[in-house]
Design brief:
By secondary structure, the protein is an alpha/beta fold. It contains seven helices and ten strands. A hairpin with a 4-residue loop joins β4 and β5.
Length: 240
């Protein structure tokens, strides 16, 4: 069994993880004890090399990922090594086709978040054939979790159900995560298991709204302050 947070943002887009270099990953691993690590930065894969080497130092599998902003909404993809398309330029279907060319595991993020989810497009047969799962629990969108749970009844067993913190700081990390029925640490085996509806288990509480109010707002204020303070500062070298 592999446990990991499937929706993580770092300093390579609009998050703060890695502002302290590998020390951030060590701190998170010590606190939460996850078995693998992925990043899903917005519309960029420029953090993959750094994160892969950090995971190698900790001896944990790294799952390359990205969160893509299509015209219709956000999609998380895993197994992607390169993505250099601008945000909100590509229609959903075109983005999915490009991801399929990379044999990616495709998971619409917070699909029923009214601002950035693909919504009922997830039920379209043409879309459903191109994706492997959907994010039923998202740590940054507690209200959409209620909507998504209701809607999931229309997709019985057809798609894997994911949970991710959507963290932009260490505070929210791992609040939602997945448990993957996979005994291998090889990335190809992990990705294959992520496609299997029977091997992905979302972990997290449905009713997180009060906790979210208490933690998310202070965390977001802190994130913005840190991003401003560290703007232009190089990421700490891994091998100094």
């Amino acid at each position: 069994m592999l446990a990991f947070d499937s929706h993580v943002h770092t300093r390579f887009s609009d998050g703060t993880i890695f502002y302290n270099g590998i020390a951030d990953l060590k701190e998170l691993q010590l606190k939460h004890g996850f078995d693998a690590f992925t990043i899903t930065d917005h519309n960029t894969t420029k953090g993959l090399r750094y994160t892969r080497r950090a995971c190698e130092q900790l001896g944990i599998p790294f799952i390359p990922g990205v969160e893509i902003s299509t015209k219709e909404g956000h999609v998380a993809a895993y197994g992607v090594e390169r993505w250099d398309h601008p945000a909100y330029r590509l229609p959903l279907v075109e983005a999915l086709e490009l991801l399929m060319e990379q044999n990616a595991v495709i998971v619409p993020a917070h699909p029923f978040d009214g601002r950035m989810g693909i919504g009922n497009l997830i039920f379209e047969p043409a879309i459903k054939r191109m994706i492997h799962g959907f994010e039923i629990f998202n740590g940054a969108s507690p209200r959409q979790n209620l909507r998504c749970t209701r809607k999931a009844g229309n997709l019985p067993g057809e798609l894997a159900m994911y949970a991710g913190s959507d963290c932009h700081s260490k505070v929210m990390f791992y609040r939602y995560h997945v448990e993957l029925d996979c005994n291998s640490t090889k990335v190809d085996d992990i990705l294959e298991a992520m496609r299997d509806t029977t091997k992905v288990k979302p972990v997290g509480s449905l009713l997180e709204i009060l906790r979210w109010i208490g933690d998310y707002v202070p965390a977001e204020i802190g994130r913005r302050k840190l991003k401003r303070a560290r703007k232009g500062v190089e990421v700490p070298e891994l091998f100094s």
